[in-house]
Amino acid sequence: MRFSDLLGMAAVALARHRLRTGLSLLGVAIGVTAVVLLTALGEGARKYVSGQFQALGTNLLIVLPGKTETTGAFPGFGGAPNDLTLQDARAIRRRVPQAELVVPVAIGNETVSHAERRRQTIVIGATKDFLEARRLGLAHGEFLPDIDWERAMPVAVLGPDLARELFRDENPLGAIVRVGDARVRVIGVLEPRGTQLGLDVDEVVIVPVASAMRIFNRSSLFRLLIQVAAHSELAHAQQRVVGIISERHGEEDVTCVTQDSVSGGLNAILAVLTLAVAGIAAVSLTVAGIGIMNVMLVSVSERTSEVGLLRALGARRAQVRALFVVEAILLSGAGGAVGLGVSWLLTRLFLAWYPAFPAAAPAWAVGAALGLSLAVGAIFGVLPASQASRLDPVLALRKT
Amino acid sequence: MIELEGIWRTYQMGGEELHALADVSERIEPGEHVAIMGPSGSGKSTLLNVLGCLDRATRGTYRLGGREVQDLSDIELSRVRQAEIGFVFQSYHLVGRLDAAGNVELPMVFAGLPRKERRRRVLEAVRAVGLEDRMRHRPAELSGGQRQRTAIARATIMGPRILLADEPTGNLDSASGRQVLDLLEQMNAAGLTLIVVTHDPAVARRADRILLLGDGRVVRRLAGSEVAEIAQLLAPRVGEP
Lengths: 400, 241
Prior knowledge:
The structure holds two protein chains of two kinds. Chain A is an alpha+beta fold. Chain A has 13 helices and twelve strands. In chain A, strands 2-3-10-5-7-6 form a six-stranded mixed barrel. Chain A has a two-stranded antiparallel ribbon with strand order 8-9. In chain A, helix 2 (about 20-55) crosses helix 11, helix 9 runs parallel beside helix 12 (about 365-390) and helix 11 (about 315-355) packs antiparallel against helix 12 (about 365-390). The two termini of chain A are about 25 Å apart. Chain B has helices at about 45-50, 75-85, 100-110, 115-130, 145-155, 175-190, 200-205, 225-235; strands at about 1-15, 15-30, 35, 60-65, 65-70, 85-90, 160-165, 195, 210-215, 215-225. Classes of the chains: A alpha+beta, B alpha/beta. The interface of A and B includes residues 313 and 315 of A.
């Protein structure tokens, strides 16, 4: 028996019961749509986060006060025996030749006001190299001046959204704003950049690091950003940085991570999450498979006398079995194709709404979803098909 | 040639043995027209199923064209049915979703014949049964006689040597029944061995011989012309339904 004949006979049999076929097909289509769409979203999230890290550069070392091994706390959240200071930063700049940029960063939450308008926002204390280290750009004015790190200076650079909120249509450059109790002059406005690793850069105030530490009344830095000249020197620079801080503090009480490792870790987590979500969605395909099995069992029961006839006409058991299996595979395969079409359409719609989110199902997910839908048909079609092929032709012919 | 030697077909019914066929021995020559008659439950259909290799004898020897078939594998029996035996049923057994041509084509699909060859043979077969103009109609759009002629075209499409017909006119009016019997007789005259199970003496009369079955055994062998005798034997007695 030719495969094209098998396919043709299966198609004719399915077309006979349009509603039943349509409903079973819908079940598989929903399952495949769920797998592909959720994978697309998961993959989109992974690419989005990865893109955020890439945007910050891959040659970045981040030093945080505290060490998980010594304190048991998350680095940067209490338990640090020694402060991470501007002197530490200065020592690193002096003694690590691979360090292209060293940026001490202090972060806090303060009220920022201008005239009657005020709001609570993130205040970042940094130096002039922060702009390059975080790959930011200026829309107006200038960034922090190249001054001694210990020197507090009453100047600030605003994120574009914050500038708009505080100044509406006025030009903020040269205007005075209050950051906590300090009065500072606006010298620049950042280019819109959106959220970078959970921090909405468009809403921050950036002041010199010494000014920030004074505003927050804090002696410890939040972290150090170190940009290394070449990616190949990252590991060596990391060792040097930890060595210098340990030497200064008398113990290893900082955590030094590379942008790569954070990005890689997150990537791995999101990839596992994507797989898990796709796996959960695949359960719906199993449910659809049971639906197909049910439909095929009904079909075998309805066509018992037909099976008897086919056997009388010389059809072998294997041919009868193949007839029903191909029918189930065709049903689930068509459902898979419809599901792929729908998921492609939904992904396009999603991208139209959120163009910044790179949602796209990877080729493996599309292939796996289609393969899975065909497998579902094959697996759940086997039982009804075997039942049909085992029918006694004499008894089957008697059934009307 | 069909040779049956001591054929038994036994079923287990609640621990008891029921003999649907009991020691049937018969020889049917190529091109013969044989009618099988007998009351309900006498084993007519069972004999037809055994002859058609749809059922296996419990005991005995069945030789078809000199080859013993009772011990053949399922696949080999399928091949025998496909190539050597055609079936015609009382209720036609046409596939409702296929048109007449599609139904006639079915055995060739399972035999794996090329599409072109199938089309040619279908056209020939529907012409032979006078259904050329109805070949694209589905069974529901055909009369009883047309359905049975479609079934006959399907039964003979693979060029079998034997045609087994189970009450072929049972669901037909007398005019359609006559047409169908004429068609079967034409085929028989062309060399096809025809074995018909029937209750109808008018059908049996056309046969070369009649086998009368009772309780699974051949109780009488008569010529077709002696059918009146059998009709008497089979007539319901007073008090019977």
